[in-house]
Amino acid sequence: ADRFGLAQLYQLRGRVGRSSQLAYCYLLVPSMSVLSQVARERLAAIREFTELGAGFRVAARDLEIRGAGNLLGAEQSGHIAAVGIETYLKMLEDTVRELRGEAVEETVSTAIDLPIVTTIPESYVADANLRMELYRKIGAAETGEDELLAELRDRFGAPPPAVLKLVELAGLKRHAEQLRVQSISARGHELQVRLRADARIDVERLIELVSRRAGASFSPNGVLTLSGVATDRMASETREILNAIADQPAVDGGS
């Protein structure tokens, strides 16, 4: 390195194709002080992800550093940062289908506002990146609730109450969106379920529920109100109510 007037020497190694042979790559760079911030971040990524098969992680980190380009939004993925990559891709898919003349059903995102603590405590999962990955996995419904809880127990031990409620609330949100429910909220011990005009509910079941349950009412603007609901029962009771009035088979919480 001194021969070339360079101050830093980096060595990388990895397998060549599927061979058992190792290849080595030496990077000669100027002093770190003269490198740009982007260059320093890229070198840091190369040094961090050295295990075999880490190419995807290097590519993902490079995407974070440089942005995805204007193809995916305004000035380096600004729209993606605003709505999230999964939502953005869904919006992009729907737009393409509309341009093709295909029918696109409006996506429903049920707003849930319940006085329930739902989080993954640092004392349960210490690594911040891993916690974010678990939040994404719980929200994306990649596995059923029972399978997800079994995985959490196997990896981190028995989940604390806040994690159990997080999984339960995520399942409730998915079920409510399947039934096209607009929102679920609470005021004290009063639970309110606001239904859209196109909600997938059985009107006769809804009328029967309101008539036989004390403290239940349904307003002309589509709000089902239930009084006297305990805070720790709000999520589970809401799910039971939705199953009772749905115009389709009930969704199993462990599915």
Could you walk me through the main structural features you see in this protein, from its secondary elements to its overall organization?
The chain is of the alpha+beta class and 255 residues long. 43% of the residues lie in helices and 15% in strands. The protein contains nine helices and seven strands. It has helices at 37-48, 55-66, 78-83, 85-99, 128-140, 145-156, 161-178, 203-212, 234-245, and strands at residues 8-15, 22-29, 111-113, 181-187, 190-195, 216-218, 223-226. Strand 1 and strand 2 (22-29) form a beta hairpin. The chain is elongated, with a radius of gyration of 25 Å. It starts with 7 loop residues before the first strand and ends in a 10-residue tail after the last helix. 14% of the residues are buried.
Provide a brief overview of the structure.
With 255 residues, the protein is an alpha+beta fold. The protein has helices at residues 37-48, 55-66, 78-83, 85-99, 128-140, 145-156, 161-178, 203-212, 234-245, and strands at residues 8-15, 22-29, 111-113, 181-187, 190-195, 216-218, 223-226.
